[in-house]
Amino acid sequence: MIFNNYPVAAMPSRIAIQALRTSLALFLASSPLALSAQTTPETAAALCVELAGQPDAGVPVSPEAQEAAQAALALATPHCEEALSGGSEDPVVLFYIGVIRQAEGEHDAAVAAFEASAAGGLAAANTKLGDYHLFGIGPLRRDAEEAADYFEAAAEAGDAPAQMTLGLMHRLGAGVPRDLGRMVELMRAAADGGYHFAQYRIGQIFLTGEGIPGGEDASLGIPDRELAARYLSMAAEQGNIEAVLELARYYGELDGAGEGDPGQQFIWTERAAEAGLPDAVAALGFLYERGRGVEASAEQAATLYVQALETGDVDFDDLRGRIGGYTPQWDRETAIAFQLILQERGLYLGAIDGIIGPMSRAAAAALDD
Fold it and tell me: Mutual orientation of helices 63-85 and 41-52 as an angle, nearest 10°?
């Protein structure tokens, strides 16, 4: 069973991550904490918490966000270890010791640290323990009922990742009764609490009725396209790229081809393209070709088509209209611009006639060589 996922791309740039590392290094060099008392357990604990940040047992919004969190924890680790050696009982320090031990594969020590952190009142530690029992990590066997107890404790304390996972368990009847009303209640609480993954998943449920028998339930208010768009937008604004793609489809297919909201479709498609998704780059080219949500530009459309094909991840037959789902004939000016680029690359030797036939297709196929 799948309870969490990692979006395929994300918004934080590597430049931003490097800036984080630099700022943290400067902090270590100049912080009054670092300068005033370098070996006391209290100072070490404060630095551990300051550098590692707010404890979070949820799924990072992206691989880049995960890398940034790991970079911060790497800088915090010696201070967390020093605080532990000095006898610190700070639940946040203990939580991060658990994270560190888990990454090292020392699961007995990780569980012990999370248990101590949870005993100190940190909800995210209960969520970590729930994960251990749910998936049978390290010394623990899989036990959905035991996991549910930990998630319940964390959810009652307002931990959004715990609320989300417990909601999914109620959907499946894993360790708890199958209860779709409780699922929606918990997932909405997690989404309203700011958890991007919950915002994305509950948005999908309100949009498509996913997981609901028959795809609809009037008592739960499902489906509700407006509410779906609101939750998906919340997730997308945080950098959840799957939500971005869902919004691009949503505004492109509201009532069939040619309907929806072209301006919003362009905004979200461009956001996905900026994140480097080949499908979105191709879809953005299609919007430029059709002048949908943006002034038509044959040259820009052709350039984007070429960029998408160069990745090798977009098939020529799926090049145009992949997100929108509606593929008309090539615009002649765009086809000519496309052939000209292929000609400049030395791939196309045919006539510049705006007819995308076998020669044009063969040339396009060579773009990712």
Answer: 170
Enumerate the domain spans of the chain: 14-276, 277-369
CB 202 within 8 A of CB 230: no
pTM of the shown model: 0.84
Instruction: Collect the ranges in the chain with pLDDT lower than 70.
Output: 1-39, 253-259, 322-326
φ/ψ (deg, to 5) at 240 = -75, 105
| Interatomic CA distance for residues 60 and 101, integer angstroms | 19
Q: Under CATH, what is the fold of the domain 14-276?
A: 1.25.40
Residues 6 or more apart whose CB falls under 8 angstroms from that of 355 comprise 335
- Centroid of chain to Cα 245: 11
Q: Quick: pLDDT tens for 193-205.
A: 999 999 999 999 9
Q: What is the pLDDT of residue 10?
A: 36
Q: What is the 3-state secondary structure (H, E, C) of 15-60?
A: HHHHHHHHHHHHHHHHCHHHHHCCCCHHHHHHHHHHHHCCCCCCCC
DSSP 321: S
DSSP 3-state assignment of 254?
A: strand
Q: How far apart are CA 123 and CA 140, in angstroms?
A: 20
pLDDT tens-place string over residues 36-55: 445 688 999 999 999 999 99
C-alpha count within 13 angstroms, C-beta hemisphere, residue 347: 20
Taking alpha carbons only, the member of 121, 112, 169 closest to residue 145 is 169
**Cβ(324)–Cβ(308) under 8 Å?**
no
pLDDT of residue 304: 98
**What DSSP element (H or E) covers 172?**
helix 160-172
Name the burial class of residue 50, with classes exposed (0-12), middle (13-18) and buried (19+) by CB atoms within 10 angstroms of its CB.
Answer: middle
The pLDDT score that the predictor gives to residue 327 is 76
